[in-house]
Write a structure and sequence with these properties.
about 160 residues, Phage neck terminator protein gp12-like domain-containing protein, seven-stranded mixed β-sheet, STM4215-like, alpha+beta, single chain, Gp12-like
């Protein structure tokens, strides 16, 4: 499983259920940029396991920075605010829970204004904590629970009534 790619892809798919016109890209280099306004994301640091059972199905968390970019500072702040409200909405959280993802925290970071000489751009940033469960298939057990017959005599313990 591509932990980050799969988790972020599911998150973006769920965001597009509510805001299909939002442009969300993984990078925003000066030479390859979508039209304004848009969002871009990056992973702030590696994931942390939340339990230490040495199994693949344990939950992990990682911080994701989502940045709204617009010409107008108010528009960038409004976009970041709208994204924050969406990320904390029950509809989005319910959809994410169905695929094993939760968002326990969304923080606003300071705005950054960039002067390109001919234009200004403002970046309004959010720091999103994502918790996800890695996919795991248990191949150590054979058969299915339906294959167990609990009515056989070998499985019944009788009491000695002497």
């Amino acid at each position: 499983m591509a932990i980050y790619r799969d988790t972020i892809s599911k998150l973006i798919d769920e965001i597009h259920q509510f805001q299909p016109n939002w442009i969300i890209t993984k990078s925003a280099t000066p030479d390859v940029r979508p039209p304004l306004p848009f969002f871009y994301y990056n992973i702030r640091r590696d994931y942390e396991r939340l339990t230490f059972n040495d199994v693949e199905s344990e939950p992990f968390s990682f911080p994701l920075q989502l940045t709204a970019v617009a010409e107008d500072p108010i528009e960038a702040s409004d976009l970041a605010h709208d994204m924050r409200m969406l990320l904390q909405s029950w509809g989005l959280l319910e959809g994410l829970a169905k695929v094993g993802i939760s968002i326990p925290r969304v923080e606003s970071l300071a705005n950054v204004e960039t002067n390109f000489g001919v234009s200004y751009e403002t970046e309004s940033k959010l720091l999103v904590t994502i918790v996800a469960n890695d996919t795991y298939d248990d191949t150590t057990q054979s058969g299915y629970i339906e294959g167990v017959d609990i009515s056989t005599q070998a499985n019944i313990k009788e009491e000695n009534n002497e």
